[in-house]
Amino acid sequence: METLERIIAEHPFFAGFESHFPNLLTGCASNARFDEDTYIFKEGEEANDFYLIRAGRVAVEIFAPQRKPIMVATLGEGEILGWSWLLPPYHRKFHARAIEPVRAIALDGKCLRTKCEQNHDLGYEMLKRFALILEQRLEATRFQLLDVYAVR
Amino acid sequence: MTQIVLRPSQLNTLIRLLADKRYEVIAPTLRDGAIVYDRIESADDLPVGWTDEQEPGRYRLKRREDQARFGYAVGPQSWKKYLHPAEVRLWSAERQNNTFRILNNETQPARPLAFLGIRACELAAIAVQDRVLLEDKYHDPIYDRNRRGAFIIAVQCTHAAATCFCASMGSGPKARGSFDLALTELDADGNHRFVAEAGSDRGTEVLAGLEATPASVDDLQQAEATVEAAGRRQMRSIDNTGIKELLYENFNHARWDDVAKRCLTCANCTMVCPTCFCTSVEDVSDITGDHAERWRRWDSCFTLNFSYIHGGNVRASAKARYRQWMTHKLASWIDQFGSSGCVGCGRCITWCPVGIDITEEVRAIRESPASSLPLSLKDINHGNA
Amino acid sequence: MTTMAAAPKIDPMLPQQYSVREVVKETADTFTLTLESSNGTAADRFHPGQFSMLWVFGVGELPISISGDPAQHHRLVYTVRSVGQATYALVSCEVGDGIGVRGPFGTGWPVEQAHGRDVLVVAGGIGLAPLRPVIYEVLHNREKYGRLVILYGARSPRDLLYRKELTAWARQPDTQVLVSVDYGGLSWRGHVGVVTTLLKFARLQPPRSVAMVCGPEIMMRFVARDLETHGLARENIYLSMERNMKCAVGFCGHCQYGPHFICKDGPIFSYDRLRPLLEEYEL
């Protein structure tokens, strides 16, 4: 049974972290499980956590009036879910729904924010990594917007 | 090869000899103010005593003071008119219920053709098209058929138009090899004659049917000198040093925007160019829908739809299309076929309605190659010819 | 350099007569046609990635990639999307109708280069059709290749091609099939996102992988870039390019892309050759 600390330390997202940082994070980490078809979080909620998905698939959705929520992306094993904990106003911008049973590590964003304010080195390392995720998601989203398979 | 001297009147004998061998003789003729290729019956059909004045976007015929038969440069047509014809029916088909039957009814040319009056640049152009259409991965049977039967009588240039630049392209003014017969017209000393030589067995056989005296040393020297002088008189040139890299690396040069402002994408240059080979195919059927034909026609990379794929035209702007033509002709051709696609005939310069000069475009890029000039420098260079 | 099927011995501009044997509707606008020679002659062998010029009586001719099994070369299979007059005429054909076929033309996918290596197939939309012969080739000669990973992106679940085969392929040993759609719809439970988002889940070893990519040009550019980031060498990434084509034999000049004729130097090129060209506007 792997410890949370080892899982976090070995996760590619945290590669290159100084050796004592994973310790700091472990203090904010806990295991989480979500049944299929349950909401991990909803748009508008306070963003207190982010998740390291260990198994299962999560759909990122947008609320749409008069119809079911629109799925804009899915995230799977190894991916990071949630970044709104990082920047004010710390509110979820999307729904996240487990479309398969999901096992994840939940990291307490509020707790982490405090630690980042106290330790700017930690803060910088976290921001660098989240900036990379945002860049990748933005690029993928723009590519998705192009609708390349549509007939012109 | 022995060189002989012919009198101008013997040209008719030559034409008759060829006709006796079933050749249809095609030669320069005068029509509608230009010198164009057409069937001739006798040497009187040649533009006797005419010359041409060519400038960018300008072509005029002028009377000469002598009776030279070949005292002009090249006109708007090239021999691809016959070798790589503008319109060819590839095959036809007829419908049979829900299927069809292809009738591969290729038409043979009625008679083999003899081309009288091919210039060195045109010979070079034919060699360029041979490489494209016969010597690459696939082989064009139509071009092959037309090419194989053709009897070639080259004429050494003794007159250079202002737009000629074959000397700098290494394709003239002297025609070397690849002809059945070659003629050099001499008249400077009042003794109007032709020095003729054979370049093949076929040519030797035809020459043998002409009463002629061997060319004297003086004849040969004059012939050599006159042709050489024509080369020296050329006012235009392209410096081909590293031209492939030059054009590849200057894909985004400001000069392309400059020429785009002038180019009408009228496609004249591709129509008159002796090496342009692009075609399109057209499927047509009759009104009953039972009979279909496939035709091949000349096409031009300047047409908007040339590069159409679903969604749009890849080369939509005039800039892209001019750049494609020039880069292909002078640079990509080298990668594709091992030599330049340009033979320096100057037709594209003469027949461009706005007088775009390919030699000038190359010079402009060569003289300011940095493709990423800072904006201010680009402005300073703009307007320099 | 891949070996190619021998150029046809007949006049390359003359269509051979084929009959439609089967028409399968894949999606609302995409159909797969199976053709057999009308007079029983065996078709030339084709190399995965090659294409034919298909002629519909009185309508016109189109370059269409062969998407069948190279081992069954007496049947020519084409998956066609109806996007215009000529493609509409093709997909409207019925069993027994005659179609003119010229080819096969072009260079093929580098299957020999992939011997002993992991094969990564990345398809976008109808791009899966020219890649299917590679999948057949690998699955029928399994011992010659390493892992097979198929990444397939489509617009929506309704646009997925070869659904049954995708499921069957996923069950093969050492074979991974990942599918993603740009728009999920209501009941889709798979990946949603562009095909590049699947790369991170691919189980392969980049240094020993050969990638074959086919789809819209924009998609191939994004994919090739990401493949390089993931550790594949440019010489091991292959794309299938497309341009206007009238003759398929290097004479009409329409398909030129820089110095390359897509019909005879391509349509398949390695990324290291293409990279300087892909970023040039209006090339």
SSE layout and pairings?
The complex is a heterotrimer of chains A (about 150), B (about 375) and C (about 280).
Chain A: H1 4-10, H2 21-26, E1 29-34, E2 39-41, E3 49-55, E4 58-62, E5 70-75, E6 80-81, E7 95-98, E8 102-108, H3 109-118, H4 120-145
Antiparallel strand pairs in A: 1-8, 2-7, 3-6, 3-8, 4-5, 4-7
Helix pairs in contact in A: 3-4
Chain B: E1 3-6, H1 10-20, E2 24-31, E3 34-39, E4 50-55, E5 58-63, H2 80-83, E6 87-96, E7 99-103, E8 113-118, H3 120-133, H4 141-149, E9 151-156, H5 166-169, E10 181-186, E11 193-198, H6 201-208, E12 213-214, H7 217-232, H8 243-249, H9 254-262, H10 268-272, E13 279-285, E14 291-298, E15 308-309, E16 312-313, H11 318-337, H12 347-351, H13 358-367, H14 375-381
Parallel strand pairs in B: 2-8, 8-9, 9-10
Antiparallel strand pairs in B: 1-11, 1-12, 2-3, 4-5, 6-7, 6-14, 10-11, 13-14, 15-16
Chain C: E1 16-25, E2 30-37, E3 51-56, E4 60-65, E5 75-81, H1 85-91, E6 98-105, E7 118-124, H2 128-140, E8 148-154, H3 163-170, E9 175-181, E10 191-192, E11 209-214, H4 217-229, E12 237-240, E13 256-257, E14 260-261, E15 268-270, H5 271-278
Parallel strand pairs in C: 7-8, 7-11, 8-9, 9-10, 11-12
Antiparallel strand pairs in C: 1-2, 1-6, 2-5, 3-4, 3-6, 12-15, 13-14
Question: How is this structure best described in words?
Answer:
- The complex is a heterotrimer of chains A (152), B (385) and C (283).
- With 152 residues, chain A is α+β, with helices and mostly antiparallel strands.
- Chain A has helices at 4-10, 21-26, 109-118, 120-145, and strands at 29-34, 39-41, 49-55, 58-62, 70-75, 80-81, 95-98, 102-108.
- Chain A has one domain: Sandwich (Jelly Rolls).
- Chain A is built from four helices and eight strands.
- Chain A is globular, with a radius of gyration of 16 Å.
- The model of chain A has no long low-confidence stretch (mean pLDDT 90).
- In chain B, the strands form four sheets. An eight-stranded mixed sheet of chain B has the order 3-2-8-9-10-11-1-12, sandwiched between helices. A four-stranded antiparallel sheet of chain B has the order 7-6-14-13, with no helix packed on it.
- Chain B has 14 helices and 16 strands.
- Chain B has two domains: 3-232, no CATH class; 243-381, no CATH class.
- Chain B is globular, with a radius of gyration of 23 Å.
- Chain C has 283 residues and is α/β, with parallel strands linked by helices.
- Chain C folds into two domains: 16-105, Elongation Factor Tu (Ef-tu), domain 3, CATH 2.40.30.10; 118-278, Nucleotide-binding domain of ferredoxin-NADP reductase (FNR) module (Rossmann fold), CATH 3.40.50.
- Chain C is built from five helices and 15 strands.
- The longest helix of chain C has 13 residues, at 128-140.
- In chain C, 56% of the residues are buried.
- Chains in contact: A-C, B-C.
- At the B-C interface, strand 6, strand 7, strand 13, strand 15 and helix 11 of B face loops of C.
